[in-house]
Amino acid sequence: MIAKILRNYWATGKMGLKVGLQYRFSFLVTMLTTPLALFMYFFLWKSIYSVTGQEIIQGFTFSTLIEYYVLSMIVGFFTWCDVDKWISQDVRHGRIISAFVAPMSILSQNLAFEVGINALAIILEMIPVFLIGFVLFGLHAAPLFNFIMFFVSVALAFLLAFFISFNVGLSSFWLKKIDGLRRIRRTLIYFLSGGLIPLSFFPGWVQDVSHFLPFEYIRSVPIKIYLADYSALAILGQIGIQVAWIVLLYLLSIAIYKRAFKQFTGAGV
Amino acid sequence: MNLLSKLVRIELKSIGLELSADMAYKTNFFIKCLAVWTYDFVGPIVALLIYSTTLGIPGWGLYEFLLFQGTVTLVFGFGNTFAWSMTYKVIETVRDGEFDKYLVKPLNTLFYLFTESINSEGFAEIFAGCAIVVFAMAKLGLSLFSFNFLLYLVLVLSGFAFEMAISILVSSAAFLVVKSEALMNLYFKISDFARYPLNVYSGGVKFFLTFIIPLGVSSFYPATILLKGATPVLLLSTILPVFVFCAVSILLWNRAMKKYSSAGG
After folding, report:
1. I need a labelling partner for A201 at 20 to 30 A (CA). Which of A62, B3, B48, B129 fits?
2. Is residue B265 assigned to a domain?
3. Domain membership flag for residue B14
4. What mean pLDDT is predicted for residues B199-205?
5. Alpha-carbon Rg of chain A, whole angstroms?
6. Contact at 8 Å (CB) between B60 and A48?
7. How many domains does the structure of chain B reveal?
């Protein structure tokens, strides 16, 4: 039974990997061009730090801030997730029907597919950025415990991003076209997770509110684990919150999915 | 003159068509505008965060930097509305062997493609850019009726011309290599550098963004000239590279047209 389920996951994951391979050329280009942004942040913050004349701004020295951006890029590769695009396309074209009758739930199919499609990107993009970070941008190796926990937390961050995206995707059962919603989702996750600027630069009350939103657990928390900002106990606490968010969003998606399934009348059904 | 009025007529028609298509999915269009505005206002929010926690970007006060960001949004908004949808169209039709249909139109192919390709989301971006620029100008006490503002408009237009030139360049490449999207993505990555003033970068990067890929004209030079005035040398060194870029891109496009042989669709 379990072997059969695993085989299903494996097959779907492989499908994602193959789709990923189709885009290997654009991955290559991304791999070569993505680190450019690091140079931009490097110059920008260098000039800001030199004119401000402070060693530490909002808890960051210049070199830690650059490490932050390197790690932010790496976390970004993991948490990149387009499942809402696939779902909305399938709903519009009526292909979602074949997903209904597959021997796996829509959720598992998409999850396995997304893991497959991301696996390649992670290997192709993460390793060079780590290397560039170590060689050019003064990234320090984290203590082993933090290093391992960073990857645990990043894997959970992927699930968190996946479930947010999955819920947005389910809205296409009602809205059909969700390009706009998807863009808002992308911008909000990117900005509120600390993708453009670390959350410690935000006003205090925003930081307080942010602890109760899922976004910072997608990027900021794993990075802070790597940078050893938490004690061992606090790391476990943060990971606990990540898990809690995943469970919450999972339950939400089950509830939405049930309603979506009931009212769905697809093209050609 | 006859040609110009024809082009304007087609352009207006395309805009009308694009908007009426959007009105068919009103909710989606509204949410799309909202998405564009969310994206466009994240930049100014980051600016506020930077300026409230540090002394800011050297040489630029908060409102000066907002003027800068508004200009970037405006110029890239023009590019997204009028330039880039053409490139997507060329890449797609060349790949599918459907490009021939543009060759039989009774108009210059390039003109026709530009007038036919409109991306309505870009209007929301242009609107946001204008709003930010006007707000910043009001805060800085700058007048709309000044010689510097006239120069600013000229430079914004050159920024737009540069977007057009790049999009023609990438479109021409679509006839030579299949994966010209990669070139486009490369350009978009580089264009991110234009989102911050060139004086923060080292001399080499600044030179590159002024003369090799003159992205400085999409915001740094217009904003600088509006704030501090221009010297003839500065104006010339800003606009000349754009001219060269436009000329080269049209030359390449014409060569690509000559060499193009249909896939037989």
Report:
1. B129
2. no
3. yes
4. 92
5. 20
6. no
7. 1
